[in-house]
Specification:
single chain; 7-stranded antiparallel β-sheet; 7 strands; mainly beta; disordered C terminus; elongated
Length: 152
């Protein structure tokens, strides 16, 4: 297991990412001053974004249904706990975007390579109660191509 977002486990069998990019910002209020440079005041943490990029080759590495599963998770609008393979808690995140590129199609139009980029945005833990996703596996609504048992 590389990482788990809620009940979705990133692994060789589902969707293994090859890069993890994290951007953290901090907010500072800027106050103009006469005869001096502007003054800054720290007002709190800013955005904390994680982007996971990877690819899969359905039938060999990864599962095409993983993309549908992640999309369904994003469609819920809920937040999910992010834990890495060592058990380190990274916070609670919402899915803000999912990009996919399908290439190298077989004779019936199925992709043999799928590249993806998943963006996650951290939310405050004290605000998570109303947004936190539950532990049930979401059913496929949009594509219905696979069952969730393929993902575990």
């Amino acid at each position: 297991m590389l990482m788990a977002l809620g009940m979705f486990v990133f692994s060789i069998g589902t969707a293994a990412y090859q890069s993890l990019q994290r951007q953290t910002t901090w907010r500072h209020a800027k106050n103009s001053r006469i005869g001096a440079r502007a003054g800054y005041q720290y007002v709190g943490p800013g955005e904390d974004t994680i982007t996971l990029q990877g690819w899969m080759a359905p039938g060999q590495v990864g599962s095409a249904s993983s993309i549908g599963y992640l999309r369904d998770m994003g469609n819920t609008g809920k937040a999910f706990v992010l834990v890495d393979g060592l058990g380190v808690f990274h916070g609670i995140y919402v899915i803000t975007s999912l990009d996919e590129t399908r290439t190298v199609f077989d004779r019936v139009g199925q992709p043999r390579k799928i590249e993806f980029s998943l963006s996650l945005e951290r939310i405050d833990e004290d605000k998570a109660d109303a947004m936190l996703g539950d532990l049930r596996l979401p059913s496929f609504g949009s594509n219905g191509t696979s069952s969730t048992r393929d993902l575990l």
